[in-house]
């Protein structure tokens, strides 16, 4: 739909939105492409920090998906990264139609310190978020279950965290229906 590099460039807050956020190279673009069955809707890159604006995708006129710039390491000048970080923070704190942030976490590594810092900010701003484990196909079932249980334990006392984790794989297409269902629930909530 559009990319926004400042708050004035945001589309009107006239339909529900869900945002995808996570560390650089966690697989946001790949997951968005798999979720929407489009190969190049979101540009995936092996280079950290490729997404440098807020990218809005209109999903059937029912809901917008927002691809946020990743946090953590990025191959970009520090001042450039600071600009998109401030824009992301302002968007998250001030968007009245933002229904949920899907915080993407690489299943192989679990929550990192940078994820915890971002969760602190979401909790403080009372922005609802849910953990989505990416690259879950890289783990054996027992290891995936352990990471899921550990992560749920880390969310237990977080006021804005939704207490359910969705494990996904963009390559194996697993967990996508669960994520689609979670997102679709916000379309009926908004209109009903």
From TrEMBL:
Question: Mind telling me which PANTHER family this protein's record contains?
Answer: ENGB-TYPE G DOMAIN-CONTAINING PROTEIN, MSS1/TRME-RELATED GTP-BINDING PROTEIN
By sequence similarity, the record places it as follows: Belongs to the TRAFAC class TrmE-Era-EngA-EngB-Septin-like GTPase superfamily. EngB GTPase family.
Provide the protein name. Answer: Probable GTP-binding protein EngB
The protein's matches in HAMAP family, at most eight in alphabetical order, are given as: GTPase_EngB (MF_00321)
A Pfam family that the UniProt record links to this protein:
MMR_HSR1
- Note whether Translocase occurs among the keywords: no
Sequence ranges assigned to domain EngB-type G in this UniProt record: 14-189
What InterPro entries does the annotation carry?
G_ENGB_dom (IPR030393), GTP-bd (IPR006073), GTP-bd_ribosome_bio_YsxC (IPR019987), P-loop_NTPase (IPR027417)
Q: Which organism is it from?
A: Hyphobacterium lacteum
* Cofactor (UniProt): Mg(2+)
Q: Which Gene3D superfamilies is this protein grouped with?
A: P-loop containing nucleotide triphosphate hydrolases
Q: Which keywords does this Swiss-Prot/TrEMBL entry list?
A: Cell cycle, Cell division, GTP-binding, Magnesium, Metal-binding, Nucleotide-binding, Septation
> Main role?
Necessary for normal cell division and for the maintenance of normal septation.
